[in-house]
Design brief:
The structure holds 2 protein chains of 2 kinds.
Chain A (H helix, E strand, L loop, with lengths): L3 E9 L5 E10 L4 E5 L6 H9 L6 E6 L2 E2 L10 E4 L11 H11 L4 H15 L14 H14 L4 E5 L7 H18 L2 E6 L2 H7 L2 E6 L2 E6 L1 H6 L4 H6 L6 E10 L2 E5 L5 E3 L5 H4 L6 E6 L4 E3 L9 E6 L3 E4 L4 E7 L2 E7 L11 E6 L4 E4 L4 E2 L1
Parallel strand pairs in A: 3-8, 3-9, 6-7, 7-8
Antiparallel strand pairs in A: 1-2, 1-4, 4-5, 9-10, 11-12, 11-14, 12-13, 14-21, 15-20, 16-20, 17-18, 18-19, 21-22
Helix pairs in contact in A: 2-3, 2-4, 3-4, 4-5
Chain B lengths: L1 H14 L4 H10 L1 H31 L12 H8 L1 H33 L3 H16 L2 H12 L5 H8 L11 H30 L2 H10 L3 H29 L3 H6 L11 H11 L3 H9 L1 H23 L1
Helix pairs in contact in B: 3-14, 5-9, 5-11, 6-9, 9-11, 10-11, 11-15, 13-14
Chain lengths: 367, 314
């Protein structure tokens, strides 16, 4: 078990291209941290630098207080689960899991005890004699996790471990990973591009973009209080609506004026925060789940009513997504499936202005 | 009822006799038929150049010296009683096995070196190292013959220059056998190198990374990841090379012509001497057929291992 500290980490490739641009991160003992971001954001490179598979151009990585910059992967006491499992195809499941212990010259009895224990946790006891070829994708992923667990390392590293699984199995394995972490409680760093995985698994989520950390925080904080437009748009599915708007003075209060003249009142408690932007162009951000049908006896404060005409309606079963375009900007809303919504028919909606965000278009930071 | 009606109709349709034209069309469209037709030219070439001569050699080996009457397996019996031939078997085995082992080791070492050179530089080295394999062996062996020449040996000149005595490269049996093996290894190593290089490139990097994280040193990675992952290519390459080396003719013919005192003959050169130079074609054919059972046994075990690993791993 160990803390992991990243101090001004830079990864620069030949030709001066920087994949990681000086990031700082402190990961506490036992913590489950997820690095999330789009392809090319530097999350996998960061993980590989922690693993020792990628050289660090500048900066310092500490595991359990020791600087590991020049320590080879085998001496970092870490275990990694790869996207493509990276199981040794010529070895049985047992040998795959025992390999790391065998190299470290553990007694055979101890190896057997650990492998069987990990196999029990992961429910793969009956697969120990099989070769990886004879396993399904989910089983292979369990074996890869087993290989990590038996080592009882200081840190677990997961590099997009669920990307090769189908949607149903992914959800199942996600729960398994969470269960395993709750059982073994090892410091875990997990890389994914899937924000749902990040939100469901992490104690803290690290959102990366273009080689820098945009925001670090618990999932709920990232969801409710994003610091940048990127984080606001990346976390949540469907993504947050961003509508170009103008912040207008409406007497004592402020109003958000959307394209088409739709005017929505800003909650009074936010007036002071937004006062400096009065009269300016801003981006109005509202998640689809905060733009709903008008409900009877809805006690949410700061509701504002508006009427939109859906152009596309997507019934999902437990909810219906409706899409419309406001002068070229797509706006989505999440409504109750019982509400009759049809393309081309005006639909009265309620915007929960208590959940609104305003973004400065000059800096892309949430105001 | 409606379902029953549908079932009956479907059954009747599938049971109806197909038109002959349609059957022929379907047969022609089958993937196996197309594959067979496309492979037909190759089958004809193999039939004409391999199967027919092999069958004819078997037939010849059962004839008497004048090829006028069948004498059954007498040619084989006479050969087995001949001390010279028993020596040829022994020499062929030593030549083939030692040359193949050396080629495999050197090829693996070179492939490993090349694999770690950046791609740009790798191409030049790969091209240069392939040269011995590309040059016609009869020509390159002539070059070696000149280097081994007792009077003008450049190798001896180098040895003398560093104070070492001259070596009778082709004059003494042990050195002559060694020289033949050296030339065969020189010419055949690039084949191993290129096959192993392809095999090395096919091992996923993630396996090495997983091994490094599991705690493997470079040597352990080679032993537990690289070699097991290359076993099929190693087996196939060794088998192929064994067949070609066993049947080698040109190097022995150009360098030693089987001498001194028949002590460097291998199957092919001895078969040529007995069959063509001594005019006993049936016995020459019998000599060449002796290679077959040895190689068949090796091929059986190698291919069985390859198939088993393919089933388990691929």
């Amino acid at each position: 078990m160990a803390q992991v500290t990243l101090n001004r980490i830079v990864k620069e490739y030949e030709g001066g291209v920087q994949a990681v641009k000086g990031i700082d991160l402190d990961i506490a003992d036992h913590e489950f941290v997820v690095l999330v971001g789009p392809s090319g954001c530097g999350k996998s490179t960061t993980l590989r630098m922690i693993a020792g598979l990628e050289e660090i151009s500048r900066g310092e990585i500490r595991i359990a207080g020791n600087v590991v910059n020049d320590i080879p992967p085998r001496d970092r006491d870490i275990a990694m689960v790869f996207q493509n499992y990276a199981l040794y195809p010529h070895m049985s499941v047992y040998d795959n899991m025992a390999f790391g212990l065998m190299l470290r010259k553990f007694p055979k009895e101890e190896i057997r005890r650990r492998v069987e224990n990990a196999a029990r946790i992961l429910d793969i006891g009956m697969l120990l004699d099989r070769k990886p070829k004879a396993l399904s994708g989910g089983q292979r992923q369990r074996v890869a996790m087993g290989r990590a667990i038996v080592r009882d390392p200081k840190v677990f590293l997961f590099d997009e471990p669920l990307s090769n699984l189908d949607a149903k199995l992914r959800v199942q394995m996600r729960t398994e990973i969470k269960k395993v972490h709750q059982t073994v409680n090892t410091t875990t760093i997990y890389v994914t591009h899937d924000q749902v995985e990040a939100m469901t698994l992490a104690d803290r989520v690290v959102v990366m973009n273009h080689g820098v950390i945009e925001q670090v925080g618990p999932p709920q904080e990232l969801y409710h209080r994003p610091l940048t437009k990127f984080v606001a748009g990346f976390i949540g599915s469907p993504a947050m609506n961003f509508i170009p708007a103008r912040l207008a003075n409406g007497g004592a209060a402020l109003n958000v004026v959307l394209p088409g003249g739709i005017t929505l009142p800003v909650p009074e408690e936010r007036s002071r925060r937004y006062a400096a932007y009065a009269g300016k162009e801003v981006l109005f951000g509202l998640r689809p789940e905060h733009l709903t049908e008008i409900r009877p006896n809805d006690h949410r404060p700061n509701l504002a009513h508006l009427q939109l005409t859906p152009e596309v309606v997507e019934p999902m079963g437990m909810e219906t997504l409706v899409y419309t375009w406001l002068e070229g900007t797509e706006v989505s809303a999440r409504i109750d499936p019982a509400v009759a919504a049809a393309p081309g028919q005006a639909l009265p909606l309620a915007a929960d202005m208590g959940q609104m965000h305003l973004i400065d278009p000059q800096t892309d930071r949430v105001i | 009822m409606a379902l029953d009606a549908t079932t009956v109709t479907a059954g009747a349709a599938s049971g109806a006799p197909a038109r002959p034209g349609l059957t022929l069309q379907r047969f022609a469209r089958r993937r196996s038929t197309i594959a067979f037709i496309m492979a037909l030219p190759l089958i004809a070439v193999i039939g004409g150049l391999v199967a027919w001569p092999a069958g004819y050699a078997i037939y010849l080996s059962t004839l008497n010296r004048r090829m006028t009457a069948s004498i059954g397996l007498e040619n084989f019996a006479i050969l087995l009683e001949s001390e010279t031939f028993r020596m040829v078997i022994w020499q062929s085995c030593i030549f083939a096995f030692s040359a193949v082992v050396l080629k495999a080791l050197l090829g693996f070492w070179l492939a490993h070196m090349l694999h770690h050179i950046p791609t740009k530089g790798q191409r030049i080295w790969r091209g240069m190292l392939l040269l011995p394999w590309v040059v016609p062996p009869a020509l390159s062996t002539l070059g070696w013959w000149w280097m081994f020449d007792p009077s003008y040996s450049s190798l001896n000149w180098i040895l003398n220059a560093i104070g070492a005595p001259s070596v009778p490269w082709l004059g003494e049996p042990w050195w002559a056998r060694t020289s033949v093996i050296i030339v065969n290894v020189w010419a055949g190593t690039p084949f191993f190198m290129i096959m192993y290089l392809a095999a090395l490139k096919s091992v996923p990097d993630q396996l090495y990374e997983a091994a490094a994280i599991d705690g493997a040193t470079g040597w352990q990675g080679l032993r537990y990841v690289t070699l097991p992952m290359m076993r099929n290519i190693i087996s196939i390459t060794v088998l192929f090379s064994l067949i070609v080396t066993f049947a080698n003719y040109d190097i022995v013919r150009v360098l030693t012509n089987g001498g001194p005192r028949d002590l460097t003959h291998v199957f092919a050169s001895y078969a040529f001497q007995v069959g063509v130079l001594s005019g006993n074609i049936p016995r020459g054919a019998a000599v060449s057929l002796f290679m077959f059972p040895i190689l068949a046994v090796v091929a059986f075990f190698v291919l069985r291992g390859v198939n088993q690993r393919n089933r388990e791993m691929a």
